[in-house]
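Human:
Take a look at this sequence-structure pair and walk me through the tokens.
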Amino acid sequence: MNRSDLISKLAEQTPNLQAKDVELGVRVILDKLATTISKGNRVEIRGFGSFGLNYRKPRNGRNPKTGAKIEVAAKYHPRFKPGKALKEMPIQGEK
């Protein structure tokens, strides 16, 4: 599901709200989530999961095309850790 799919689903489920209001709400939530994480802070949504950053140390890598050794710089990588309720939720369509 992408952002536009999410907006259309939410607009269908909330007929008392206009689609542009739903779009604004989704955009504000996702923008705030992204800026908070980019500042190095953690975001936790109870029952769903938490978003944060993982630090990756610098390391030696290899160019797969040429085989030449390269140094990969240290970086922060965004991560999502699902909450307990999300982990225990049954997968629809699973037999």
